[in-house]
Specification:
Blueprint (H helix, E strand, L loop, with lengths): L16 E2 L16 E5 L3 E8 L2 E9 L5 E6 L4 E6 L3 E8 L2 E8 L4 E6 L13 E6 L2 E8 L3 E8 L4 E8 L9 E7 L2 E7 L3 E9 L2 E6 L1
Antiparallel strand pairs: 1-11, 2-9, 3-8, 4-7, 4-9, 5-6, 5-8, 10-17, 11-16, 12-15, 12-17, 13-14, 13-16
Length: 211
């Protein structure tokens, strides 16, 4: 995506940012209102206020069992169900207060925030990302039609790639790009135009290219 005269400056990075990489900065998840919670067992978290916007849950978990997070608000349901020791997931929240229920057996931390990335952090295609397990990557400014190429190394686990605009609401992603089981390599075209983040739910090593 080329910028003309007076265009907003974007990052020239050719790889997407893992949103967890923002946790040790002054603005975790690019949200000064983000909140971090910790415990050594299952716990309930009450009345977290959220705007109508894309919402990230970034977590770290010491348990060998799945780390499970459910939310109860105007948009509710399962947010995280992962065996990863660290990762991120997301949902498109409507405005209101949200309760979270965390199920695990060991020490954990969880940061909840609603990213609105500064212009200089926003990437433009062509860009790529890779990882092992659950992640939220971005931010990227997408055109009307975008080509996604995905690879997943797994004996039978899920590979789901969803795109959320930063102002997404209503509980659902703007685009489901891939929804596969097991080892996969393929390409598709989608049209989730705008400044976006991408959720990858994977049970193995994955790679994503956006052009």
């Amino acid at each position: 995506m080329d910028g003309g005269i007076g265009a907003t400056k974007r990052s020239d990075a050719n790889t997407l940012l893992d949103v967890r990489d923002t946790l040790d900065t002054d603005h975790p998840l690019f949200d000064p209102q983000s909140k971090t919670f910790t415990s050594d067992d299952s716990a309930g978290i009450d009345a977290v206020p959220l705007r109508s916007a894309f919402t990230v849950v970034a977590f770290q978990n010491d348990s060998e069992e799945n780390f499970i997070v459910e939310t109860d608000g105007s948009v509710g349901g399962l947010v995280v169900n992962s065996s990863d020791t660290a990762g991120a997931a997301c949902f498109a929240a409507d405005s209101g207060d949200y309760d979270f229920a965390v199920a695990t057996e060991r020490n954990w931390s969880m940061t909840v925030g609603q990213p609105f990335a500064p212009p200089e952090e926003i990437r433009t295609p062509s860009v790529s990302a890779s990882g092992d397990g659950h992640a939220v990557v971005g931010p990227v400014e997408l055109a009307e039609t975008t080509t996604f190429t995905g690879e997943h190394e797994s004996d039978g686990g899920n590979f789901v790639v969803e795109v959320y605009n930063e102002d997404a609401s209503g509980g659902t992603p703007d685009e489901v790009v891939f929804n596969q089981i097991g080892e996969f390599s393929g390409e598709t075209r989608a049209s989730p135009a705008g400044i976006s983040w991408i959720e990858v739910e994977a049970d193995g090593v994955w790679r994503l290219e956006i052009e």
